[in-house]
Amino acid sequence: MRTWQVQQPGEPERALRLVDIPTPRPGSGEVRVSVRAAALGFPDLLLCQGKYHDKPQTPFSIGGEAAGTVQEVGDGVDESLVGCRVVVTPGQTTAGLLAEEVVVPVQRLLPLPDDMSWEEGAALFVAYQTSHMALFRRAGLAKGETVLIHGAAGGIGSAAVQLGKAAGARTVAVAGGARKAKACADLGADVVVDHHEDDFVAVTKEVTGGRGADVIYDSVGGEVFDRSRKCIAVEGRLLVVGFASGTIPQLPVNHALLKNYSVVGFRTRPFRDDPAYCREIHDELLRYREQGFVQPLVDGATFDDVPGALRRIADRDVLGRLVVTVDRNDA
Question: Is-contact 84 114, C-beta < 8 A?
Answer without folding.
Answer: no
